[in-house]
């Protein structure tokens, strides 16, 4: 059987229902699925833990013991989702999407057994099925006691099928719900960036490259450009290039003809067509392969693209806004990214600084903004309040995950507090400056300084060593290794 023919089964471990007093239950959903319905080439059982989930290991062992012919087919996958997030659709979705996209590169069919897992996990399966446009089936089982023949039954759940991609990996701004001006908080530190963006938006079709660390608001800024431009009535489509392999990315961007490859049962339009007249946001552009770099360069030069399997090119009418968290110039210098594509993309360049460089008033303004925005979103009668001690910790914290981390924090405080936030309500790493992840620790700052010095000197270690004041290059090398920079 070729890799492309594989039929994959995915499911979360049912931490309670698959076990009884810590031992695997043969009446649990996962064991039962194997007993009655498993016809797959591979079963990936997901655990939300970062690693060493003893329950997952026990379940895998038991399944391999009871169904020995499936030993090579059953595997576990650790998804590393913080405990608070297993009930958070927004936190779960990107991780599940990335997994599905990874698997879709080789799988012909992805079946998801949706019964095990939290309600949020089930919602995410639905959203992914309707949003990603992958060959996915959602399966549920009906227990034997509820069926006519006293045997468990398999039911395929039909979630609403939509041709409009709505996922985080591929998002479309619907024209009837345009973003509000108030969604964009333009703080003092961001003001120069946003005024440049406004000028770019007023210039028809100029290509733009946004650089900045993860969570600094690159996509947000791209939407702003779209929103301010005269393309606003047309779609904004965002594609995460790093989540897709070459062939999938190519067929998603340019579309494909019927029969262009195995499984291409009908002609499908790509994002260049779907975003016609609008804006295409290519996120993580620094991660695309040399082949895709060359293909994209041709499209930008000729303003035309050819769907996979087609002979005639089509006119491209999109504004491209690309983004990356990688220093792209350095990637060009190292030969990993083409200079010619870099210059085509960076006709206008924008840089979003990390939160730690934006100053305290900016951070405070963002906190205020999200407190208000999330109060509205969660329909809370009152805005969050912070005790003086909690406020002080927030002021000191550097938010290495940038605006996204700050926004997620405010969201979770609305969910997990009753409206007043004290020190004890803040995450551990904020409360305990000694925890390994804490930005209060010297190591955190040292790592950040090394990272910036290397970036500034384009990776030149001896210049970075001088600037950082290390006695020898070996000290710098040791730190780089220790901090996994
Ligand atoms: N100026 C801003 N005003 C309001 N919200 C913002 C602003 N900047 C960023 N955000 C919010 O912060 C979150 C992260 O922003 P965004 O997804 O644009 O970051 P990013 O740099 O594209 O991240 P990544 O590189 O990880 O994809 C989003 O929810 C976004 O709405």
Automatic annotation (TrEMBL):
PROSITE patterns cross-referenced by the UniProt entry: SIGMA54_INTERACT_3 (PS00688), SIGMA54_INTERACT_4 (PS50045)
Pfam families in alphabetical order: AAA_lid_14, HTH_8, Sigma54_activat
Gene3D superfamilies assigned to the protein according to its UniProt record, in alphabetical order: 1.10.8.60, Homeodomain-like, P-loop containing nucleotide triphosphate hydrolases
SMART domains, sorted: AAA
Residues annotated as domain Sigma-54 factor interaction: 187-415
Superkingdom of origin organism: Bacteria
Keyword annotations of the record: ATP-binding, Nucleotide-binding, Transcription, Transcription regulation
Protein name: Sigma-54 factor interaction domain-containing protein
Source organism (scientific name): Nibrella saemangeumensis
